[in-house]
Design a protein that fits this description.
heterodimer, A: Serine Threonine Protein Phosphatase 5, Tetratricopeptide repeat, 5 helices, disordered N terminus, B: alpha/beta, Rossmann fold, 7-stranded mixed sheet, 10 helices, 7 strands, disordered C terminus
Chain lengths: 85, 251
């Protein structure tokens, strides 16, 4: 019975994580997904802040013509400058 | 003559209550918003026993309304939540609508739900509703194969704390597709979770960018409950009408 159950689960739905879904959408050029990933790493969404990742994803979003990603990127770059000073 | 109609009414009442005696199996189907995952779970994971999303609030409402229901699913989360509730579900963190469509046959065959409650599309990052349509097509095919009617309650999905035009367009496309299917007689109910739940798209109702907090989940449960309540009442009425009409036809 357990084997049958395991087979059903394996043949059914995969267990991708939320971040993987965002990453894959960003990789295929969805600007909003890159923007969201940037926000996920800004420390206000439960994950530990990682300003380099935040900047990378927002840059990708901005390059993909997301105005919001560009606006957020400006703020992140300002944060980085303040950290350096 | 009077006795004959009295017999029909008594027979119908008896028969309909017998039909209604079957527990209604409800499958809560979707992604992390059904399962209850939030980004904080990546760094500070809550045990499965403490995850419930909207599911516990919906259960409490159904029980308060005295409905005989059984949540069905191959996943189980929320055993430590009090008051206790039925922890079975089909929510998979990170899954897309096409992912659900690809894996929908086994749980439907295994668990034979009467009602499927579907909130899916957040992870699609697309305005295309092809994945949702594929879910509905697969369920239709299973219904035909097994002669087992399933009512599907489909949500126009919740938006995000940073408003997403992709989600809003997805929802509009979804509505058009569902309207077409309903016009053709498909047993679907649409709920507008994006607007009708009254969610505040900020920290009042969200724990992060995508995931509601308990306050948000409670509001979602309210919307689901209203839809399920309508479906249950309709099913109960039909259960009464069918034998009545049948009896009248026989005579």
């Amino acid at each position: 019975m357990k084997f049958f159950y395991t087979l059903l689960v394996l043949s059914g739905i995969s267990f991708a994580s939320e971040l993987t879904a965002m990453q894959s959408a960003c990789d295929r050029g969805v600007a909003e997904a890159c923007h969201d990933l940037g926000l996920v790493y800004n420390g206000s969404n439960g994950l530990e802040a990682d300003i380099e990742k935040e900047k990378d994803y927002l840059t990708q979003g901005c390059d993909l013509d997301s105005d919001r990603a560009c606006e957020e990127l400006e703020k992140t770059e300002m944060k980085l400058r303040n950290n350096d000073e | 003559m009077m006795n004959k109609y009295l017999f029909i009414i008594v027979f119908s009442l008896f028969f309909s209550s017998a039909l209604n005696a079957e527990t209604t199996r409800i499958m809560l189907l979707g992604d992390s918003i059904t399962f209850d995952y939030r980004f904080l779970d990546n760094t500070n994971p809550r045990p499965l026993s403490q995850r419930s999303g909207y599911r516990n609030y919906l259960w409490y409402k159904l029980k308060a309304a005295k409905y005989d229901v059984d949540f069905v699913g191959r996943q189980h989360a929320g055993s430590a939540i009090r008051p206790v509730f039925d922890i079975d579900h089909e929510g998979y963190s990170g899954i897309s609508s096409q992912g659900i469509a690809d894996g929908i046959a086994p749980p439907i065959q295994l668990l034979a739900p009467h009602i499927v409650v579907l909130h899916i599309g957040t992870n699609d990052y697309s305005t295309s509703i092809t994945g949702v349509e594929n879910i509905l097509k697969k369920i239709d095919a299973l219904e035909k194969s097994y002669h087992f009617p399933i009512t599907i309650i489909v949500a126009r999905i919740i938006n995000k704390t940073n408003y997403s035009s992709i989600v809003s367009t997805f929802n509009r496309n979804l509505q058009r597709m569902l309207d077409r299917r309903i016009a053709k007689g498909d047993d679907l109910v649409v709920v507008d979770m994006e607007h009708d739940a009254g969610l505040h798209y900020d920290s009042r109702d969200f724990s992060d960018l995508l995931h509601p907090n308990n306050s948000g989940y409670r509001k979602m449960a309210e919307v689901w409950f209203k839809a399920i309540d309508k479906v249950m009442k309709r099913k109960n009425n039909n259960a009464f009408l069918i034998p009545t009409v049948y009896s009248l036809l026989l005579n």
